[in-house]
Amino acid sequence: MIVGIGIDAVTVSRLEKWAADSAILERFFDSREIKTVKDRGKGMVRSLAARFAAKEAFCKALGTGFTGIALRDIMVLNPQDQRPELKLEGSALRAVQAAGAERVHVSLTHEGDLAIAQVVLEA
Q1: What is the pLDDT of residue 15?
Q2: Nearby residues of 6 by Cβ (< 8 Å), 6 or more positions away
Q3: Residue 103: predicted pLDDT
Q4: CA 22, CA 71: separation in Å to the nearest integer?
Q5: Structural domains of the chain sorted by starting position, each given as residue range(s) with its CATH number in brackets
Q6: What is the per-residue pLDDT for 40?
Q7: What is the maximum alpha-carbon separation in the chain?
Q8: How many CA atoms lie within 13 A of 108 on its CB side?
Q9: How far is CA 74 from the centre of its chain?
Q10: Which residue numbers are catalytic?
Q11: Which residues of the chain have pLDDT under 70?
């Protein structure tokens, strides 16, 4: 059963300043995410944008917005360079459990100056 669906789009160029500001990166992204995107070289900003879109899509799927959720508790990771997965900790994990979701699905895409993410919460 689907508990929630969220989608979000982020303009890639909007995050160009973030890529050069370690304080902003550390505020919104987990250290594992930061390492992953920095390893992407020229694709770093696109990767940041897609990850931020996934965080927003997750909160939309919950129906709560960012209220009570630390964005660093929502991580987009690519285990062994495979498809992206959402890893939840702390406030995000508690929120998804309270919603009754047992599985979280994420899909990311890029097109031109847009990064788009969709999240589905499943019970």
Answers
A1: 92
A2: 56, 57, 58, 59, 60, 61, 62, 118, 119
A3: 97
A4: 15
A5: 2-122 (3.90.470.20)
A6: 86
A7: 41
A8: 22
A9: 6
A10: 60, 110
A11: none
Q: How far apart are CA 112 and CA 121, in angstroms?
A: 28
Write down the pLDDT at residue 100. 97
Token digits of residue 35: 């390492």
Distance CA 27, CA 66 (A): 14
Q: Cα separation of 75 and 61, whole Å?
A: 15
In this prediction, residue 116 carries a pLDDT of 98
Q: Which residue type, as a one-letter code, is found at position 9?
A: A
According to the model, what pLDDT value does residue 74 have? 97
Q: For the purposes of burial, counting CB atoms within 10 Å of the CB of 14, is it exposed (0-12), middle (13-18) or buried (19 or more)?
A: middle
**Pairing of the two strands 85-88 and 74-77:** antiparallel
Q: What integer pLDDT is reported at residue 80 of this predicted model?
A: 78
Amino acid letter, residue 1: M
Please give the structure tokens belonging to residue 114: 């847009």
Q: What is the pTM of this model?
A: 0.94
Q: Rounded to 5 degrees, what angle do the CA atoms 100, 106, 108 make? A: 160
Q: Which two tokens stand for residue 104?
A: 């979280």
